[in-house]
Amino acid sequence: MRHVERLVWGLVLDMGTGSGIQALGAASRVEVERVVAVDIDPKAIRDADRNLREAGLRHRVELLIADLFSALRPLSLFNWIVFNPPYLPSEGAVDEPSWAGGPRGGEVIERFLREASSYLRDEGGILLVYSTLTGLDEDIFMGYRVEVLEVLPLFYERLLCVCLRPS
Questions:
Q1: Residue 105 confidence (pLDDT)
Q2: N or C: which end of the chain has fewer CB within 10 A?
Q3: With contact defined as beta carbons under 8 Å apart, do 128 and 85 qualify?
Q4: For the chain, which residues make up each domain, given as ranges?
């Protein structure tokens, strides 16, 4: 959340909002006009709604249940997109959607990046978190300038927070 609280401004899309923590961080900034928070899981949207209400910021955030960009209008352009995606390799039907990113782990991120530039203003940026276990090919970032903002070493992996800007 510290990168959201430091960087985002204007119109912000919080993709895969989960509990709404990134939406809450963005909505608390005076530089942010509006936040749209999206999640595929209705329970996550209910949790985000509750957390935003408790923080007194619900009026600054639009909540949508959707699979990635499917509920957004064409030509919806954001200054910032924040995405803490499911990024671990999937085992099958019993997986938790909050962490299962596909057989290799990176399929959800790949889908996201194929569509994201259509929803991002030229001067905009994407904050993205992923793991060294995600199985991403470096080519996935083609069309973006990549800045590594933070690397968090864990027991068996490293989490990376990157800022992507259109090139």
A1: 55
A2: C
A3: yes
A4: 2-166
User: Could you give the CA distance from residue 54 to residue 61 in angstroms, rounded to a whole number?
Assistant: 13
> 130 burial class (0-12, 13-18, 19+ CB within 10 angstroms)?
buried
Mean pLDDT of 4-9: 95
Angle (CA) 81-2-78 rounded to 5° is: 15
Residue 149 sits at φ, ψ, to 5 deg, of -90, -30
Nearest to 66 by CA among 92, 44, 84: 44
Taking phi first (over 0 means left), then psi (-120 to 50 degrees means alpha), and beta for anything else, what does residue 48 get? alpha
Residue-wise pLDDT for 79-122, tens only, equals: 999 998 865 556 665 445 555 545 555 678 888 998 999 999 99
Tokens of 66: 């959707």
Which positions ≥6 away from 14 have C-beta within 8 Å? Answer: 20, 22, 23, 26, 35, 36, 37, 38, 61, 82
